[in-house]
Amino acid sequence: MDFRKTEEQELLLESLDELMERHCSEAYLRECDEAHRWPKEFTDILMENGFGLLGLPEEYGGTPVDYTTLLMVIERMCENGLPPYVYGGQALSLRDMIEFGSPEQQEQCFAEVKRGNPGFVLGFTEPGAGSDSAGLATTFTRRDGKVYINGSKSFMTNAINSRYVLCLARNAEEDPTDKANRSKVTMWWMPIKDENGNPTPGVTIEPLDKIGWNMGNTCEMHLKDVELEEKDLVGVEGNGFMQAMINFEVERLVMAASALGTAECAFNDAVRYATQREQFGKPIGQFQLIQEYITDMYSKIEAMRYMLYHCAWEVDNGIPVQIDSAIVKRFCARAAFEVCDLAMQIMGGIGYTKDSRVSRIWRDQRVYRIGAGTDEIMIHIAGRAIQKQFQE
Questions:
Q1: What is the pLDDT of residue 89?
Q2: pTM (global) more than 0.85
């Protein structure tokens, strides 16, 4: 395995660095963070310069690249200070629409992407169904030639900035306690607002007040007799959960790449500070304990890097990554927070102020151990799969 960057990858990352240096300063990001405002000016610039559709097939207006290259871009954006939820490799999350969406649904989805907005929100998590997908309780009912959706969705990232939700729901006529129906859910393409931003009748969106990720929004969504058409079905009825699974393993790698880039950002700031901040007549980086912190941080970052790109190589070569993607996601989420915490310690009081981006990175990073599958679920997924290899 050769993880050296190709000339094309180097040029791509250099152009990204130049773009972010001109249009995505820390002052701009701090302003958006404090105002809880989506950095649309910069997402528009990403779109204008070809990054918004990077990784998508040409027929959708995109530029095809392999997973490794896409993860490199995500890593570099986060290393430059951009919060992961602003970009996050949208091409990966759009695979559901590419694989299963109708031409009309695809046209609506990619029209939003080209405007610099999320293509859709994945309506999976619910008050009673997070890690336990069998607890999904949102239902659809057919009545008078229409389809009506009822239920609630939780932790919908960027719902306020989105026009559509890919909503998973059960058939209200089927008994959810029947084991045959546990995994039978259906995807529906649901508009949650019209082109003027007015909410769809029956849809209520309530933003959550959270610790970090302030440039994006996380919302509760309540659905009461939301009217859809049969044409709004996505893929095969009853197969929605398996369709959603197509994204989960790669989504974990996106989170891992984001964690790696975020850790690098915090590391760079902390080491730079350690070489400049003087106490007792010399830079604090000359003290052995600070050097131990720096060495530990460096070690964690290198371990994250090798695990991530080994797994990306496996994806690009068609090798199953059920175990590795779960292990990589868990390890990187935990290691990155440890790096950010040590960066905060090195920078001391200044690191805890809003004048330092380490404070923003530190509070944003904690959710990586929860989103896209908790640490505990990653252990459950990998632990079962590892043991299964020895049982066969």
A1: 55
A2: yes
Q: Which two tokens stand for residue 187?
A: 């995807």
Task: Write the secondary structure of the chain as one string of H (helix), E (strand) and C (coil).
Answer: CCCCCCHHHHHHHHHHHHHHHHHCCHHHHHHHHHCCCCCHHHHHHHHHCCCCCECCCHHHCCECCCHHHHHHHHHHHHHCCCCHHHCCCHHHHCHHHHHHCCHHHHHHHHHHHHCCCCCCEEECCECCECCCHHHCCCEEEEECCEEEEEEEEEEEECCCCCCEEEEEEEECCCCCCCHHHCCCEEEEEEECECCCCCECCCEEEEECCCCCCCCCCEEEEEEEEEEECHHHEECCCCEHHHHHHHHHHHHHHHHHHHHHHHHHHHHHHHHHHHHHCEECCEEHHHCHHHHHHHHHHHHHHHHHHHHHHHHHHHHHCCCCCHHHHHHHHHHHHHHHHHHHHHHHHHHHHHHCCCCCHHHHHHHHHHHHHCCCCCHHHHHHHHHHHHHHHHHC
Say how far apart CA 180 and CA 174 lie, in whole Å. 10
Tokens matching residue 256: 């891992």
| Number of other residues whose CB lies within 10 A of the CB of residue 86 | 21
**Contact predicate 256/308, CB 8 Å:** yes
Tokens of 43: 């997402």
The CA-CA-CA angle for residues 80, 296, 338, to 5°, reads 60
- Mean pLDDT, consecutive 10-residue stretches, the chain (392 aa), reads 91 97 96 93 92 86 91 96 79 79 93 85 88 85 97 93 94 81 88 93 95 92 98 95 82 94 98 97 98 98 97 95 96 98 97 95 95 93 94 76
Q: Which of 370, 377, 285, 369 is nearest to 335 (CA)?
A: 369
What's the CA gap between 129 and 167, in Å, rounded?
13
